[in-house]
Amino acid sequence: MAEGARVQVSVPYALREYTKGAENVAVKARTLAQAVAALEERFPGLAYRLLDDQGRMRRHVIVLVNEESVGHRDPASVDLSEGDTVHILPSTAGG
Amino acid sequence: MARIQKGDTVLTVGTRKGVFLLHSKDRRRWKSRGPYFAGDTVRHALLDPRDGRTIYAGVTSEHWGAIVSRSTDFGDTWVQGKEGPRFPKKSGLSITRIWQVQPGEHEDLYIGTEPAGLFRSMDGGDTWKSVEGLNAFPGREKWQPGNGGLCLHTILPYPGDADRMLIGISSAGIFATSDGGDSWRGYGAGVRYYGQKKFAEKEDVATCVHKMARDGADPDIVYMQNHAGMHRRKRGDGGWKVIENGLPIAKSTKGTFGFPLAAHPHDRGTVYAIPLEGDYNRVVPGGAMVVYRTENGGKRWEPMTKGLPHKAAYYTILRDGMRTDTNDPAGVYFGTLTGELFASRDDGDSWALVADNLPGVQSVEAGVVGGR
């Protein structure tokens, strides 16, 4: 595992085919962008599902850090600290 | 699960909730597989006619983005590309949906996306490159979306010449390349203006193309269902010509309104269309399901009704909802937004319901196992 703060990422049900069913994945990262990169390294293809062409979180993806929404801030600007929890969720929309 | 063997006909039915495969040896009795990618929208999927074995599916999740996946064992396993298609950073654009998957002339594979973009893969969909000649087309900022969004929904390679291609974007218009996608030009002269008896004089015109199909015997001839009418154009012509003799006419556009269009695989001048009432009521006119066929390049269209419901059938068929197979006689297939799938095994002369209660059908493709 790379250098950084140890954080816990909760992967949504729809994406657990990438994590072989794992709901919670521990990664080391200082930012949300680094956390996504760490996920991609272990589970190729997962980052494409989270980030749009411009490197932003996809429009209908919600990210909570310690249960607080980070909105659609640049993932590189979302700092993570030791022990943080990152929840990735689909927005509750659609039919 | 029933085996799929060489010579079988395979239908790939993209729906609002996954893709279904139907297969048959005699085109009378059909067996189904799937759905695959259940929950996601598959706007388009097809059996690659070059090998008759690989199925490509354009899968769109509104949450998790759009991917191209492929199967070489008729759905038992699917492989997602190593890198999904992406617009360059400088564009500021991001793909939200995949509308079309189209094999090219050689190893090339194309997709059409929303926002409107054309992407090429040379490795079976593992990696993609933006076709910048089109995606960064000067004036792109003026392109306007149609009702379905700003989507590139039609890709027509030119058989025998990998450098030539036509594409359709709603509602930016029709574009042509003759240098492999490096440069593009408008191809809209002659298209009728909405509700008028006037026609576009210039090629460079934004027009709401709904679907295009190449003639099965003469690739120089292309048919087009446009928002404002049905058209035909032969390479070298100065423009598109309206071909609506025998087709229903919408009150609003003063032309034939509809989306699906499919060419017979072998017979020159034979094309199928399903007109809708109009842009104000996008169902088949009068609740009667009719497929129209021309056998003379649009000089005259005839209604095909045998086996189709003729009352209380308020069907909507989307732009990729009808296709032909490559058999002789040809199979013709269409799916509805309410989940019915109809098939003809005699060039469209008669029809049978082969599936219903499917999720809303987005696209139908038909192929033969083992290739062309």
Spatial strand order of the main sheet of chain B? 3-2-1-28
Cα-atom Rg of chain B, whole angstroms?
Answer: 19 Å
Average predicted confidence as pLDDT of chain B: 97
Overall body shape of chain A:
globular
Helical percentage of chain B: under 10%
Uncertain runs of chain A with pLDDT below 50, 5 residues or more?
none
Tell me the number of structural domains of chain A.
Answer: 1
Termini separation of chain A comes to: 39 Å
Q: Specify the number of helices of chain A.
A: 2
CATH topology assignment of chain B: Methylamine Dehydrogenase, Chain H
Share of helix among residues of chain A?
Answer: 10-25%
Strand order of the largest sheet of chain A: 2-1-5-3-4
Question: Can you give me a brief rundown of this structure?
Answer:
The complex is a heterodimer of chains A (95) and B (372). With 95 residues, chain A is α+β, with helices and mostly antiparallel strands.
Give an account of the 3D structure.
The complex is a heterodimer of chains A (95) and B (372). With 95 residues, chain A is an alpha+beta fold. Chain A has a single domain, classed as Roll (Ubiquitin-like (UB roll)). Helices cover 17% and strands 26% of the residues of chain A. Chain A contains 2 helices and 5 strands, in the order E-E-H-H-E-E-E. Chain A has helices at 32-42, 46-50; strands at 5-10, 24-29, 61-65, 68-69, 85-90. A 5-stranded mixed sheet of chain A has the order 2-1-5-3-4, covered by helices on one side. In chain A, a hairpin with a 2-residue loop joins strand 3 (61-65) and strand 4 (68-69). The longest helix of chain A is centred in the middle third of the chain and has 11 residues, at 32-42. The termini of chain A are far apart. The model of chain A has no long low-confidence stretch (mean pLDDT 94). By secondary structure, chain B is mainly β. Chain B has one domain: Methylamine Dehydrogenase, Chain H (7 Propeller). Chain B is built from 1 helix and 28 strands. Chain B has one helix spanning 132-135, and strands spanning 9-15, 18-24, 31-36, 41-47, 55-61, 65-71, 79-80, 97-103, 109-114, 117-121, 129-130, 151-158, 161-170, 173-177, 185-186, 209-214, 221-226, 229-234, 241-242, 257-263, 271-276, 291-294, 301-304, 322-324, 332-335, 341-344, 352-355, 361-368. In chain B, the strands form 7 sheets. A 4-stranded antiparallel sheet of chain B has the order 3-2-1-28, with no helix packed on it. The two termini of chain B are 25 Å apart. The model of chain B has no long low-confidence stretch (mean pLDDT 97). Classes of the chains: A alpha+beta (95), B mainly beta (372). The A-B interface holds A 14-15, 44-45, 48-50, 52-56, 58-61, 90-91, 93-94 and B 39, 61-65, 67, 80, 82-84, 86-89, 91-96.
